[in-house]
Design a protein that fits this description.
This protein is of the alpha/beta class. The chain contains 15 helices and 13 strands.
Length: 380
């Protein structure tokens, strides 16, 4: 049994947290004993308890505004590692990888960092990452991004996120979402999922939606996601989106649904998923849409082309910052329902062949076993 201490910075459930939750049942089948350091009480902690996964509580945000916050958080990490005595440390995000790397190295505990974002980093941040034995990038694009910025190439490995093919699966739309929103039964529904943040490009989608409605006035758009950031620019951005959606061209045709726990069901109700992100290491929602047989129109950024190498793989890719191209792709699919359906079927095949959660979990365990060979800790 290999005890692995996972560090999660936040208690909310975004892509990285959901990717971790997806693999945990399989990890335990393969003799991994996960222990999750997580803020509590929180949504993530509650879900971990539902899965009967051991947790330890920590609150890295409690000292984020202090002058020596990095040192204080690393002291907290050291105390948890010494208390749990893991064989391995797994930092579940870029920020956690930066914090955990030097601590685990100093303690002589083997560690891995998960790179789920693509961000420019200082020289010091790169040095922090290079303390890990391995860094798991969620796509080739993410790996190349960090290699070009100075991360040691021999530490970088690609590990695609996995999607639960039994939770996300195709099924004929029931029309329940149209009923919930008070829409005609045959109203096409475009869906988008993600945080309300500038990098998600929602204003591009709203502009594309205005163009789409000139040809398909009956179409509706639903956006699932919340704004977590409290920066003024993000607050202003959120307000501008709501104002745009309330304008004469879109009024009554854009629906902000906020946080939803029924994403798997929603994906089966939508005509297609539209993903306008400006950057995307490997969009989890794209994998979930593909597995659900939901056709995808997405920007060709980051690792998205690794999910959809061609239109025969379930997705139509368009240039970033191009509402015209996005609108054209959406209209092509709305005008050809059979093509749209075939695209969804191709996505399901692609997800099953390449992105199943068992395959991802098995590969993660392989990394754990290979790295743990060099760990002096007992962890059992």
């Amino acid at each position: 049994m290999i005890r692995v201490l996972f560090f999660c910075e936040f208690g909310i459930r975004n892509g990285g947290e959901n990717s971790l939750l997806a693999v945990l049942p399989r990890l335990r089948e393969l003799d991994i004993e996960p222990v999750i350091a997580v803020p509590s009480p929180s949504e993530l902690a509650r879900q971990l308890r539902t899965l009967d996964v051991k947790t330890v509580t920590w609150d890295p945000q409690s000292c984020k505004d202090h002058q020596n916050s990095v040192d204080q958080r690393r002291e907290m990490i050291q105390q948890l590692i010494e208390a749990v005595n893991p064989l391995l440390v797994h930092a579940n995000s870029l920020s956690m990888s930066r914090l955990c790397g030097p601590v685990a190295s100093q303690l002589g505990v083997a560690s891995l960092g998960h790179l789920r974002d693509m961000m420019n980093l200082s020289r010091q941040a790169i040095d922090d990452l290079n303390h890990h034995q391995r860094l798991l990038a969620v796509s080739e694009a993410t790996r190349d991004w960090y290699q070009q910025r100075g991360v040691d190439s021999h530490r970088l490995h690609v590990l695609y996120n996995g999607v639960d093919l039994e939770q996300f699966f195709p099924q004929p739309a029931s029309g329940t979402l149209q009923q919930q929103l008070g829409l005609p039964e045959d109203a096409p529904i475009l869906g988008g999922i993600g945080q309300i943040a500038l990098r998600k490009g929602w204003e591009i989608l709203l502009e594309a939606m205005e163009q789409v409605r000139k040809q398909f006035p009956q179409v509706h758009l639903v956006i699932v996601g919340e704004r977590h950031a409290e920066k003024q620019e993000v607050i202003d951005y959120h307000r501008q989106l709501i104002e745009s959606a309330s304008g004469p061209e879109l009024q009554g045709h854009v629906h902000f649904l906020g946080r939803r726990d029924d994403v798997a069901s929603l994906l089966r109700q939508w005509t297609m998923l539209v993903h306008p992100a400006r950057q995307e290491p490997l969009g989890r929602v794209l994998l979930e849409a593909a597995a659900s047989g939901c056709p995808v129109v997405a920007t060709d950024v980051g690792g998205t082309r690794e999910i959809f190498p061609g239109p025969e793989d379930g997705g139509m890719l368009v240039a970033s910052e191009s509402p015209g191209q996005m609108a054209n792709a959406i209209c092509q699919l709305l005008a050809a329902p059979q093509v749209c359906h075939s695209l969804g079927q191709a996505g399901r095949r692609r997800a099953g062949d390449c992105f199943g959660v068992r395959k991802s979990a098995d590969r993660l365990v392989q990394h754990f076993r290979e790295v743990s060979k060099d760990s002096p800790q007992k962890g059992s």
